[in-house]
Amino acid sequence: MSQDIGGAEVKEGGIELLTELLAATAGTGAKLHLYKAAFSPTRDSVEADFETNECDFGGYSATALTFGSVGLDGDGQAVVHSTRVVQQVTGPIVVNPNTVGGAWLEDVIAVGPPKNSKVLRYFPFPTPVPMSAAGAQMSLEVVLNSLGAGKLILDT
Q1: In terms of Cα–Cα distance, which of 103, 72, 73 is closest to 85?
Q2: What's the whole-number average pLDDT of the chain?
């Protein structure tokens, strides 16, 4: 007789680890930026690549994030959600219409000397989002986990 027996995983210490990581990094100045669809970041991309391709539509600005309390998701993984950020095109005449290809989270993790160290996490959108009409908007929320990974929740 053959049986398939599902296993379970205990992620002990995940909440504490993520809480410590937030205290040291993301809770102290993380900013969410948007980049234009013409840019396709890779693991080799550097901060200057993102900055060169940062969105500039009317009403856009990079936004500082704050994070809530660490909790567990349905899989028992320690996670934390950021505040929800809304980006909206302003003005009756659209200045610098953009098509947004994704977002990146910039986080200072060590302040120099000799230099500052940063973490960049990027989130390509599955479909670029046009921000070219007055009133167009998107809502974004970052979710981080104790493995150092994360995801972005995007509503348009």
Answers
A1: 103
A2: 81
CA pair distance 115, 110, nearest whole angstrom: 8
Domain boundaries, the chain: 31-155
Q: Please give the angle made by the CA atoms of 146, 104 and 21, to the nearest 5 degrees.
A: 25
In this predicted model, what pLDDT tens digit does every residue of 104-146 receive, in sequence order?
A: 988 766 666 665 667 778 999 999 999 999 899 999 999 988 7
CA distance linking residue 8 with residue 92, whole number of Å: 55
DSSP state, 113? S
